[in-house]
Specification:
The complex is a heterotrimer. Chain A is an alpha/beta fold. Chain A contains eleven helices and twelve strands. In chain A, the strands form three sheets. In chain A, strands 6-9-10-3-11-12 form a six-stranded mixed beta sheet, sandwiched between helices. In chain A, helix 5 crosses helix 7 and helix 7 runs parallel beside helix 8. Chain B is α/β, with parallel strands linked by helices. In chain B, the strands form two sheets. A ten-stranded mixed beta sheet of chain B has the order 2-1-5-7-9-11-13-15-17-19, covered by helices on one side. In chain B, helix 7 runs antiparallel to helix 8. In chain B, 49% of the residues are buried. By secondary structure, chain C is α/β, with parallel strands linked by helices. Chain C is built from eleven helices and 23 strands. The longest helix of chain C is centred in the C-terminal third of the chain and has 17 residues. The radius of gyration of chain C is 22 Å and the shape is globular. The chains are: A alpha/beta, B alpha/beta, C alpha/beta. The interface between B and C is large, with 39 and 35 residues. Bound molecules: adenosine-5'-diphosphate (ADP) and magnesium ion.
């Protein structure tokens, strides 16, 4: 695809004044974010800031209520869509804690997902043989032994294997927007490099990434275009890659309404 | 109807007293109950022949008979001799907030209140519970006032003489946010029959630490139960130890009446000779958010027989229940027998339940490990078998009772022969 | 979410049609005369009639069992017709050409072509319609290998010695109420004999169809695997959608002689009744096999139909080193009730048994596993492993486990595990986030739950079972 004007002017994801709650507790309190095609945005921030919630709200998890605001994925409002339709529209979430589905083979699960994508894009479903080939390729790319295709989805996988399995799904599904929720947490340096390589290999002018992470480390390998700090349900600071380095050095204590500060305020 | 039951009914206490309404109701129920056979699910593996044969009387037992000393166990002692409550012994001073009442001598108000409480927790289906209702002379009521913690444990001992029968009944009420420890002791080996039932009402936020030592052996037939009702956030920690006799049967019932309550039930039995021990443990999850952990273990040697029926019933509304039951058994001889049935009956979908039962010889890997450290095979077997029970002794919250029962278990175990 | 899951499980009962076939049907009622008439319809020898009458007298003395976790309106045994056969079957068609085309069409509609050219190669079919066997395919080919596969009513004539020796040898007449009834009134079913050392060259299967209103089906199957032989047998069943309950009380006996192996698979899809419990088949079945030395019997069942299921395919592990297996998926929904499981009776040394039971309850249904594992004193070194898992869908259903474990041998090892789970919100969300529709996600998760059992089914049946629970791509990774 050539560099059309649409890919620079239009947003891949445009979140405007998003408010959302879980169990009647307000978590997102006016979130704004604009991600252009091909960009990589990193979101950092203290625990409990609402980073995972952002991913869940965008992907349509049950139990999360949108109070107000909008989220356009490639110009389409996704907040009223069913979870599976958002996925078919090209939104992908790599989970912080991938769930196990015993007995359902990874391959069957992957094929069902990819078939759904291809159907949404008006493409023919793969035959089993074709798909097996593609899946084996993806498996190699994330450094998982082929036996993982036969095993139950995440069943008995180690933490690192689960994360690589998420990445493999991302590679197979070819989404427009990928949200990676702490995919680097709990990984050793080699595994992290596999994740970084996986992401870098998928970077393209028509695919965007939101990378939620606590660590500067990952951002050494995946160079973000922007870094945002999310705190108490809002973006409180944005900058370029250097912001991540600052955060690594200083932490989040400078954020005004950080919970620890509130507590201090009470004590005074 | 069996002859035994007819005789029991005929002997029912006919004096009119405060207990009459309960007695009458149970009499009516008894008359409609048929005597259990092998086809009666609750008695499928346990024959009542020895009960049918028993011809006993309610004689007096000498006051000389006293409970065995438990070194270091500073308890308040309640003693039954052949079912008669030792009121003399009850002259001891009670801690503030604790009352122990012999209900026939209680105020009319308390009698009236007790009428609505006694026999409410013990499920009606227990045949011998009904028999106990009919034959018992009186009921002891133990009550802890709201928010009072009684640190001194209460020990209830039931003593029985040769050719005697004994029927005892205790009702225990822990009012809101109170706490108490109760240890029930059944002992003796003379030809006899006793039924002993204790009901525990554990109100909201109250905490009961409970022990039942069903240690009657040989010819002493013992049939009884402990029944617990738990209010909101109530907590029960119960340990049951069973030796077998001609017939030894315990029914435990845990009924959740308030949310966020917890119960932990550990039970273990060691059976030798021709002993029989039968434990029926039922848990009724009638409300949401309660947790049950049950751990039942047994060792069965010689010609002995163990029966375990563990039933967990999760009612329609009892969402978010967590219930686990584990039953492990070792058979030491090819004439011994174990029958176990861990049942689940579930009517709510958002629950976590797991049941496990094993009957096995001892872990070969563990055996090998010990042998590789130079321990002889026979010694290693003893160590492992004992270790299997010892784990539960270690979990007893009361260390004094643990150290009292441990050597008895060890002795009993040492006498058991491994014949396979 | 429960709504979506319910939708996923909802499916039309596709086998619910009625075939327009003129039948000869006995008037309802049960007495010695009826039994004589059944026997004479089948032209039976005197000994067979005597056997039936004896069973009838035994049955009359027995009481209907009430220990199962099921509730159903009392069966009026006098309101049932005990024999119904298509008129066209009266003068025994010699070949398929003579069989009423409507009958053949019925089986075609059910996906069971009876014309050999159209059939799946490698499966021989005995098609039983109400009280008679319509046709048994590939008989000649099987006979070349020495395998006997014929309706049991034929076997009574052709192989009386085998029938006399083994009929009732595994499930005695007195065994239980429904077995005794079956002994008295059984009509047709399959008979299989595999000679010594023979590996049956094809899968054998029987397809049972109830068509006539108010008739009971009382089939009887007897499979004898002689020493060192091997056979895989499949069984399927359907019935029209009717408002009245119909009774199906079958008896299946398996005899696995030394070193023989029998694999018996069932996909039970009798009409389950409607959502409110109106109509449907009462399925009271006794299935049992006996294993001689080093023999193996493996039961696999997928139970999705019937209003009431009462069924405990069992193994008597008599011979040393014999093996029994039970793999079961039972799905209940609507107002269905299932009380099913197995008995593994270990008599011989080093006998082994495995029980894998997967119960799925949805709607207002109740699904119970009931099992017995018994280690007799002689079962030196015997082993059992039992895994019972329940999946509850919705909060109006019930899932129950009643496992009886009896051990009288110290060297025997029994392990029983039971768990309960539900289709979790997290699992559903993961699937949906990957673009999979909720219905598909549920059937995938449910199929995953059943996987250990499905992988035991013969290929052709796995497909049928899969259609019932919508399975795909299973086992396609090499
Ligand atoms: N299901 C839930 N119920 C109640 N509170 C929740 C739930 N999920 C998340 N929260 C709360 O929302 C806040 C944000 O959580 P999360 O998005 O997971 O934070 P982060 O990923 O930034 O660490 C936290 O305070 C958390 O406790
Ligand atoms: Mg998070």
């Amino acid at each position: 695809m050539s560099n059309t004007t649409s890919s620079t002017e239009n947003s891949m994801l445009k979140i405007t004044d998003l408010h959302a709650s879980v169990e009647e507790k307000n978590i997102l309190k006016g979130l704004n974010l604009d991600v252009k095609p091909g960009e990589v945005h990193a979101i950092m921030g203290p625990n409990g800031a609402g980073k995972s919630t952002t991913g869940y709200v965008l992907s349509g998890r049950e139990g999360y209520t949108v109070e107000q605001g909008s989220a356009l994925l490639d110009g389409v409002e996704i907040l009223d869509l069913e979870a599976e339709d958002r996925a078919r529209a090209g939104l992908f979430l790599a989970f912080q804690y991938p769930v196990e589905i015993p007995g359902v083979s990874n391959l069957e699960f992957l094929k069902s997902s990819v078939d759904a994508q291809r159907e949404a894009r008006g493409e023919e479903a793969y035959t089993s043989a074709e798909f097996l080939k593609v899946a084996k390729e993806a498996c190699k790319q994330v450094n998982l032994p082929l036996a993982f295709l036969k095993r139950g989805v995440n069943e008995g996988f180690s933490g690192g294997e689960k994360k690589r399995n998420e990445l493999m799904q991302m590679i197979l599904l070819k989404p427009k927007l990928c949200i990676l929720d702490e995919t680097d947490s709990g990984l050793d340096i080699d595994a992290m490099q596999v994740v970084a390589n996986g992401v870098n290999s998928q970077r393209s002018p028509d695919r965007s990434f939101i990378i939620v992470t606590h660590y500067q480390r990952l951002l050494d390998y995946i160079k973000p275009d922007f870094v945002h700090v999310l705190s108490d349900g809002k973006i409180v600071k944005s900058g370029d890659a250097s912001l991540a380095k600052e955060l690594e050095a200083e932490g989040y204590s400078w954020i005004h309404n950080e919970p620890a500060d509130e507590l201090e305020g009470d004590l005074l | 109807m069996s002859l035994w039951l007819e005789k029991a009914i005929a002997r029912a206490n006919s004096t009119s007293d405060w207990l009459s309404p309960i007695r009458e109701a149970s009499l009516t129920a008894l008359k409609e109950t048929s005597w259990p056979t092998r086809k009666t699910e609750a008695w499928k593996y346990t024959s009542l022949k020895s009960v049918e044969r028993a011809s006993l009387s309610t004689g007096d037992l000498s006051e000389q008979e006293t409970p065995e000393e438990i070194a270091g166990f500073e308890s308040l002692n309640l003693i039954f001799r052949n079912g008669k409550f030792d009121t003399e012994g009850m002259q001891q001073a009670l801690p503030e907030g604790l009352s122990i009442t012999y209900l026939s001598s209680a105020s009319d108000a308390l009698k009236q209140a007790s009428l609505n409480e006694v026999s409410q927790i013990k499920p009606e289906r227990h045949l011998f519970g009904l028999v106990n209702d009919v034959l018992v002379e009186d009921v002891i009521r133990i009550e802890v006032a709201e928010s009072v913690s009684i640190s001194q444990p209460i020990r209830i001992t039931s003593l029985i003489g040769l050719n005697s029968e004994s029927h005892t009944r205790v009702y225990v009420k822990l009012n809101k946010a109170s706490s108490l420890t109760v240890s029930e002791h059944y002992q003796g080996n003379a030809e006899s029959l006793n039924t002993g039932f204790v009901e525990y009402e554990i109100c909201a936020e109250a905490k009961l630490e409970h022990y039942r030592f069903a240690l009657q052996t040989d010819k002493a037939i013992s049939i009884g139960g402990c029944h617990f009702k738990l209010g909101e956030r109530a907590d029960l920690n119960s340990t049951l130890v069973g030796f077998g006799s001609d017939l030894s049967r315990v029914d435990t019932d845990i009924i959740y009446d308030g949310e966020f309550a917890n119960a932990k039930l550990n039970a273990f039995y060691l059976l030798d000779g021709k002993e029989l021990f039968d434990l029926h443990a039922t848990v009724e999850h009638a409300v949401p958010n309660c947790t049950t952990l049950e751990n039942v273990r047994g060792i069965v040697a010689d010609h002995a027989k163990a029966v375990f029926n563990g039933r967990i019933h999760i009612h329609r509304d009892a969402q978010k229940t967590l219930a686990e039951l584990n039953n492990r058994n070792l058979l030491l001889s090819d004439k011994a027998e174990i029958n176990t049935k861990p049942e689940l009956e579930i009517y709510a979908d958002d629950v976590r339940c797991a049941h496990g039962a094993t009957v096995a010889e001892i872990d070969k890997h563990a055996l090998y490990y010990l042998e590789s450290r130079g321990i002889s095979r026979s010694k290693a077997q003893v160590m492992l078998n004992f270790g299997f029970i010892n784990e539960l002794i270690d979990q007893m919250p009361n260390q004094v009772l643990a150290e009292w029962i441990r050597p008895q278990i060890r002795d009993r175990f040492a006498k058991m022969e491994v014949t396979r | 979410m429960t709504e979506q899951i319910d939708k996923a499980l909802e499916r039309e009962y596709e086998a619910g049609f009625v075939s327009d076939i003129e039948s000869e049907t006995f008037e309802p009622g049960l007495n010695e005369d009826i039994i004589r008439r059944i026997s004479s319809m089948k032209n039976e020898p005197e000994w067979m009639l005597e056997w039936r009458l004896k069973a009838f007298r035994v049955w009359q003395e027995m009481e209907e069992p009430d220990w199962a976790h099921i509730n159903y309106s009392k069966i009026d045994f006098q309101a049932i017709s005990y024999y119904s056969a298509p008129k066209s079957m009266k003068d025994k068609p010699k070949s398929l050409d003579e069989v009423d085309p409507e009958l053949i069409r019925t089986y075609e509609k059910l996906g069971i072509p009876l014309i050999e050219q159209q059939m799946l190669a490698g499966i021989a079919v005995d098609a039983v319609f109400d009280s008679v066997s319509v046709v048994t395919t590939f008989r000649e080919k099987l006979e070349e290998a020495g395998v006997i596969f014929c309706p049991i009513s034929d076997a009574v004539h052709r192989f009386p010695d085998l029938v006399k020796k083994y009929l009732g040898s595994v499930v005695p007449t007195k065994d239980n109420y429904f077995a005794a009834l079956n002994c008295a009134v059984f009509t047709d079913g399959s008979f299989v004999y595999i000679p010594k050392g023979t590996r049956c060259p094809m899968e054998l299967s029987t397809y049972f169809r109830i068509n006539e209103l108010n008739t009971g089906q009382f089939e009887r199957t007897l499979i004898i695997a002689d020493e060192g032989s091997h056979v895989s047998y499949l069984e399927g069943c359907t019935a029209p959608q009717r408002d009245e309950n119909q009774l199906h009380a079958a008896v299946v006996e398996l005899v696995a002689l030394d070193k023989a192996e029998i694999k018996y698979s069932t996909v039970q899809n009798w009409y389950p009744g409607d959502e409110n419990g109106k109509g449907g088949i009462y399925n009271f079945v006794t299935k049992r096999g006996i294993c001689h030395e080093s023999a193996k019997i493996s039961w696999t069942q997928v139970e999705t139909g019937s209003a009431v299921t009462w069924k405990y395919p069992s193994c008597i592990l008599k011979g040393d080193n014999s093996v029994g297996e039970f793999y079961s998926v039972a799905l209940t929904r609507g107002a269905q009730q299932a009380d099913t499981g197995t008995k593994m009776i270990h008599l011989g040394k080093n006998t082994k048994s495995t029980i894998i039971s997967k119960g799925i309850s949805a709607g207002k249904s109740n699904n119970s596993y009931r099992g017995l594992v018994r280690m007799n004193p002689g079962a030196q070194g015997a082993r059992n492993f039992t895994q019972c898992d329940s999946l509850l869908i919705g909060d109006q259903c019930g899932a129950h486990t009643f496992p009886y474990v009896e051990s009288r041998n110290p060297s025997a090892i029994v392990e029983h595990e039971a768990t309960t789970s539900k289709v979790s919100d997290e699992q559903m969300f993961l699937c949906r986030q990957r673009g999979i529709e909720p219905e598909k996600a549920v059937s995938m998760i449910v199929n995953g739950f059943c996987k250990e059992v499905f992988k035991e089914l013969p290929m052709e049946f796995a497909v049928e079972a899969g259609k019932l629970l919508e399975i795909s791509l299973e086992g396609s990774v090499g």
